[in-house]
Amino acid sequence: xxxxxxxxxxxxxxxxxxxxxxxxxxxxxxxxxxxxxxxxxxxxxxxxxxxxxxxxxxxxxxxxxxxxxxxxxxxxxxxxxxxxxxxxxxxxxxxxxxxxxxxxxxxxxxxxxxxxxxxxxxxxxxxxxxxxxxxxxxxxxxxxxxxxxxxxxxxxxxxxxxxxxxxxxxxxxxxxxxxxxxxxxxxxxxxxxxxxxxxxxxxxxxxxxxxxxxxxxxxxxxxxxxxxxxxxxxxxxxxxxxxxxxxxxxxxxxxxxxxxxxxxxxx
Length: 267
Prior knowledge:
Layout: E1 9-12, E2 25-28, H1 39-59, H2 66-80, H3 90-96, H4 104-118, H5 142-167, H6 175-188, H7 194-210, H8 224-243, H9 246-249, H10 253-261
Antiparallel strand pairs: 1-2
């Protein structure tokens, strides 16, 4: 905590002996170099980030470097040491903040680690918590579903903008293919984008026929009516996506609510 008592003044300057304080400076010896205001909030945010990264590693399909896992674990331990005494263990912190809801696989591994330690087993860098979680033991991961949803939301925006750019160019050869990919992403988001999905399905065959390779070898080009339709579709889609209505972001709420509900109170 910051010192709240009287400050000790140390004055420097050759003119002090002559009774002048013109070139004096006051040094606050007991004032902290760095402000501690909001430290608990910063630690909490850093721990959430590290825990989420560890959780993602535990559910990844591809193997992750054990060295990277150990580095993140050390980062978590380092943040815990910045909390006031008595400093909690990672397992205690996960339970106190109920972060196990968001990071169930990390919570399970840490709980197993604590059990092994309580039984007198010495844990090393190669012990159980580093072991990849087997398919059968993976808990339902809110984070995985959260980031998958964010990825699809982003994909729709990127693909709609890319399709608009293609249609405004001279070569429309790949418009039907891009429209098909956009349809897949729109379909993945379900009911909120049902109208766009239906519109694409109704016009896709005509778009595909209009963009077939021409016999004379020139680039295929959409008729103006189809071109304007695609641009209108993409503009409306991007606008609706960037507005982020509740119908699109509802699947993101479990993770967001969990983190907000356990945001530490200002110290």
